[in-house]
Amino acid sequence: MKLGFIGTGVITEAIVRGLLRANYLASEILVSSRPLEISAGLAQLSPLVRVCEENQTIVDEAEMLFLAVRPQHAEDVLTSLTIGPDRQIVSLIATIPINRIREWTHPDAQICRAIPLPSVADLAGVTAIFPSAPKVEELFDALGTAVAARKIEAFDAYAVTSAMMGLYYGLSEAAAQWLCSPGTSCEGARAYLAGMFQGLADTATQASGESFEELRLRHTTPGGLNEQLFRTFLEQEGGNALNRSCDSVAKRIRGMH
Ligand SMILES: NC(=O)c1ccc[n+]([C@@H]2O[C@H](COP(=O)([O-])OP(=O)(O)OC[C@H]3O[C@@H](n4cnc5c(N)ncnc54)[C@H](OP(=O)(O)O)[C@@H]3O)[C@@H](O)[C@H]2O)c1
Fold first, then answer.
1. Are residues 57 and 106 in the same domain?
2. Which of 35, 133, 222, 225 is deepest in the core (most CB within 10 A)?
3. In angstroms, what is the span from residue 228 Cα to ligand 1's centroid?
4. Rg of the chain in Å (alpha carbons)
5. pTM for this predicted structure
6. What's the pLDDT at 183?
7. What is the Å distance from ligand 1's center to 86 Cα?
8. Domain boundary at 150, 176, 203, which?
C-alpha cells in the first residue's frame, strides 16, 4: 500500500515514525515537503519515505491519502488539488465534517475521519475512526488500537475526550508545581507524578473488567487521603468544571456540522 500525507506536521511525524517501527507493510510513504525540518528528518529514517515538493504528486500516487493540515488551511490546500474518487482519503483534520471534505476533494471520494493521538509513534495510540474503513483500521491497529465509531455522534464524543490531552498535562503541571514548592526538586516532582500516573494507566489497561469508579474505590482507603482529596475536588466544582468543559467543546464540534 502506498501512503501519502498532505501536511508533515506533528501528527504526520508521529504516524510515520509509528509505521516505520511497526513494520507496517507500506510500499512507500510520500510526505509533503512542508515543513522541511520534519519531512527531511523522516526521509532520513527510511528509504521508504519520499519527500514530495508538490502535493499533487502525493495525490496522484498514494492509494491511501491522509489529510493532515490545520483546519484553517484545509479549504485552500484541498481545492488547489485534483483528487479522483479512486483512493481512500483519511481526514485527520479536526472539526471539519466529511461533507465539507467531499466538497473540497471529489463528490464520490471515499472518506473517513480519524483522530490519531501522538502516542501512535510509540505504537500505543488509540485512534477513533468514522465511518468504519477496514484498511484504515488495520493501519491504526498496527499503531496501537483502532476504535471504529458506529455513529458520527460517537466519533464527535471521542473528539471531545481526545481534547483532554492538554488538560492531563495541565493538571500534571499544576500538581508538579504544588509538589516542587516545599523543597522537592521540580525534576523529582515530575518523575514522581509521571511514574504514578503511568502506573495507574497500566493498572486500568490490565484491569479492563473494572470501571474507573471501581478502580477509584480500590485505590481509596475509607477516611483516607485519597477520599479526602477527591471529595474536596468535587465540593470545589472540579467534576462540574470538567463536564462543562466537555460540553463547550462538543458544542463547537456540533456547530461545524
Ligand atoms: N497534533 C495532534 O495530536 C493531532 C491529533 C489528531 C488530529 N490532528 C489534526 O491533524 C491536523 C494537523 O495537526 P498537527 O498537529 O500535525 O499540525 P501542524 O504540526 O501544524 O502540521 C500541519 C502542517 O501542515 C503544513 N502545511 C500548511 N499548508 C500546507 C500546504 N499547502 N502543503 C503542505 N503542508 C502544508 C504546515 O506547514 P508550516 O509549518 O510550514 O505552516 C504544518 O507543518 C490538524 O487538522 C489537527 O486538527 C492533530
1. yes
2. 133
3. 43
4. 21
5. 0.93
6. 81
7. 24
8. 150
Residue 257 has pLDDT above 90, yes or no: no
Residue 218 exposure: Cα atoms within 13 Å on the Cβ side = 10
Where does ligand 1 bind, in terms of residues with CB under 6 Å?
A: 6-7, 9-12, 32, 34-35, 55, 68-71, 73, 77, 92-94, 115-118
Could you read off the pLDDT of 115-173 as tens digits, one per residue? 999 999 999 999 999 999 999 999 999 999 999 999 999 999 999 999 999 999 999 99
For residue 211, CA distances in Å to 60, 215, 217, 247, 248 come to: 47, 6, 10, 22, 25
Contact in structure between 112 and 102 (CB atoms under 8 Å)? no
How many separate domains does the chain show? 2
Residue 174 cell numbers, joined:
499544576
Distance CA 114, CA 90 (A): 7
Residues 244 and 130 grouped into a single domain: no
Looking up residue 64, the CATH number of its domain turns out to be 3.40.50.720
